[in-house]
Amino acid sequence: MDLAFVWACLLAFAVLAYVVMDGFDLGVGILFPALDKGADRDKAMNSIAPVWDGNETWLILGGGGLFAAFPLAYAILMPAVYTPLIAMLLGLVFRGVAFEFRWRTVRAKPAWDVAFFGGSLLAAFSQGVILGAILQGVAVEGRAYAGGWWDWLSGFSLLTGASVVVAYALLGATWLNMKTEGALQAKARLIAPWVATLTLIAIGAVSLATPFLQAEYYARWFAWPQIALTAPVPALVAVTAGALFWTLHKGREVAPFLLSLALFVLTFAGLGISLYPYIVPDTITIWQAAAPESSQLFMLVGAGVMIPIILIYTGYAYWVFRGKVRDEGYH
After folding, report:
1. Which of 3, 150, 227, 233 has its C-alpha lying 20 to 30 A from 178's C-alpha?
2. Tens digits of per-residue pLDDT, 45-58?
3. Distance set, CA 260 to CA 55, 183, 318 (Å)
4. Pick among 2.40.160, 1.10.730, 1.20.1630, 1.10.3680: CATH of 3-277+288-330
């Protein structure tokens, strides 16, 4: 068994699970200023209240798995993105504290609304910046990071940061369209086409820029015969985007959210095409960064037990709190 490849797949799954699950509740926070104060904001928060903290389990699994299964990659990548990583964690802290405290005050609720929005925006933007910083490559000398404190900051990383923000906003809008009704649902339906358009523009901009970051990226996307395998990805993105706009126009509730998730899956597949087989772009492969096989096998046993448990309790939570959220609760 190729344990390094298995662990790479597990980490990719954990990151994707985090993005699609925590993405929509971060998106709700990003959209908060566009929602009416009072009942609509309360309903929006109630729609994610049962699941938002459980969604972040996958972030812990991804970070811990990287440290345990690919310690060399962890040692190189973390110093390269310390600043946006700390910003992301601070955003998640502010967001989590605001989530708990805004229910316990009336006078200070507007301040906690700002903290909830600001934390969500900062966390989402920082995640995109981290992605861009890794994609554009990091300086490596021997087995250590050799770059500077601000190497992560570039036009491309700012582009990916903004792209993640608008993409999460799309997930948030389609989630509220699915989980609410009345004025809040109408507002979500009004916002969704706009953020969907911005998301597609962002996907196009990042997709056009990425192949020109490194020659290896260009070859993976455009050289023959790789192009025969990669061409279906943008084609599927176009089909999915068309279906998304059609379902939004028809007033569907569940389909737009699922199609938005499909866009994330397809863009994540594109990211995998660009990076594989490297975990530190075009410098260190997943096999070069892997922990000893005995360690990977030991951890794989634990992961084989814990990941199904996480999936079961996550699925159960979503099932229990299925349906619409209204003033009196879930129905």
Report:
1. 233
2. 888 888 887 777 88
3. 17, 22, 18
4. 1.20.1630
